[in-house]
Design goal:
Layout (H helix, E strand, L loop, with lengths): L15 H7 L2 H18 L1 H4 L37 H37 L1 H16 L2 H12 L3 H9 L3 H15 L3 H8 L4 H9 L4 H24 L11 H8 L8 H28 L7
Length: 296
């Protein structure tokens, strides 16, 4: 009887083509939709029909095209000040994604740095950082964000800093745990014996082994920050008017929902699509990074 030859699984390759090959229909659809949303956000100034802040009180609260009282040129209708919903939604999508990207990046860098320090140094430093992580987890962060924005204002810098410290504890806890597992491995001991400094250990030997979990956590943190920014903007503590984010559009439009639901539908749908796409792709990357699930 001939012994079957084992064919290596494609799961071990992490290139873009391999990821596309292993992705299912849902993941491929999410990837295409994500690229479409990203392109719409990047090119919003060029594809928006009109100035997002231009007002026309004679055309206020007009429905999308195809409904009674619709105005030509306003594809998705107008808001209470006669501003174009489509143009404002495109610019709001651009700002919301930018804030979430900046916040997730800042949170990842903060958590990565503190996690590496805690795992490598240990002792009282590890205890202090672990205590900060426990405090962050124990206190509802939405309350901290509300307090910070209320005290320091809703400027973009303040908002990015507030969003950046949201979720850093997840990065810090995972990185610390991975470093503790890796620091006693033979290749780390060999690097120490060769005289490698803690900085070189972190950058050259530990960081490459943290890429996969960091990518997964970044994707999931991005979706969480989109919802947090939308919550703050919905409550009126986000970016100052007339600049629009998706959350602020939902917040301002909620009073008109019985008579003008289109004010809320478009930005709420964009929030849903952005978070859904990131969650689907994050789950896919998580399964790819987990060796126990990779070949299923």
């Amino acid at each position: 009887m001939t012994t079957p030859i084992a064919i290596p699984s494609r799961g071990g390759s992490g290139g873009p083509l391999a990821l596309w090959h292993d992705a299912g229909l849902l993941e491929r659809g999410a990837f295409i939709l994500g690229l479409t949303l990203l392109a719409a956000a990047l090119f919003a100034p060029y594809i928006a029909p009109v100035d997002p802040n231009a007002q026309s009180l004679l055309a206020r609260l007009r429905p999308p095209l195809g409904f009674d009282r619709a105005v030509s040129g306003y594809w998705l209708g107008t808001d209470e000040l006669g501003r174009d919903i489509l143009s404002r939604s495109l610019h709001a999508l651009r700002l919301t994604i930018g804030l979430a990207l900046a916040g997730a990046t800042l949170g990842m860098l903060l958590g990565l740095t503190l996690g590496l320090i805690a795992g490598l140094v240990g002792g009282i430093v590890d205890d202090l950082i672990s205590g900060l992580i426990d405090i962050q987890i124990a206190v509802p962060f939405t309350l901290i964000a509300l307090l910070a924005v209320a005290l320091f204002g809703g400027d973009l810098i303040v908002l990015v800093l507030v969003l950046g410290i949201a979720g850093w504890e997840t990065f810090g806890r995972v990185v610390r745990g991975e470093v503790i597992k890796l620091r006693d491995q033979p290749f780390i001991e060999a690097a120490r014996a060769a005289g490698a400094s803690p900085w070189r250990l972190a950058v050259k030997h530990l960081l490459p082994n943290l890429v996969s979990p960091l990518v997964v956590m970044f994707a999931l943190s991005f979706a969480t920050i989109v919802l947090l920014e939308s919550t703050l903007s919905f409550l009126g503590l986000g970016v100052r008017p007339p600049t629009a984010t998706l959350g602020s559009m939902v917040g301002h439009g909620r009073a008109y929902m019985p008579n003008a639901p289109w004010l809320v539908i478009t930005p709420a749908l964009l929030i849903l699509l952005v978070t859904l796409v990131v969650q689907i792709l994050g789950d896919f990357l998580r399964d790819r990074a987990d060796v126990r699930l990779r070949d299923r």
